User: Fold Conserved uncharacterized protein from Erwinia billingiae.
Amino acid sequence: MKQLYEDLWVSTPEFPASEHEPELMMHGFLLQHTRGNLLISRVENLNDHQAIEDLGGIIRHYLTHSHEAGPGARLLQTRFNAALYCHNKALGAISPYVEADDTFNQAELHCGSFHVVPTPGHTPGSTSYLYASPFGKTYLFVGDTITMSHDRWVTVLVPESNEADLKKSIEFYRALRPDVVLMGTTAGHLSWQEVTMREWLALLDEAESSPLDLRQRLPD
Assistant:
């Protein structure tokens, strides 16, 4: 785990085998919250699991969408007795790996300050998480709803994507004012980006106009 800010760490990059994108990287994030540590996205590396223990463990694990499920989720759940949360539309896809402790299907406030916001489109159960850190920065965890592919911002279309829902989610993002955008998967790029308001709106424009369409490349 690498520390990014006073209360936020990023996991060691994982490189899932990808025929179409050898530089694909996946990350997870550990957020130190006053009520206990929260884990967002995917962390499969066992060395990172030990680092999580050294940082005090976790009380909850939040998935941004079903593609983040893997054997490590079950290991984390068991090792730390951590509750796993996901959108109810992600349940079927994650069930081969792990059983969720709780689900949501609308915007909710967890732990008093951690905003759970469904942002469907990339997948039906895609969800973002917004947190205003007491250290001054607002973090937005977007999963793969938008991401970086080398030097450009993109949306990613896969067989279960819904373009109309994705457009609505991008419009919702325009009302937010994050200081840091944190992505679960990127290609050839770090998984976080500090942004100004102007940069945030510009990257949303770029992502919306630059869909990375994998529907013809991936099996149904």
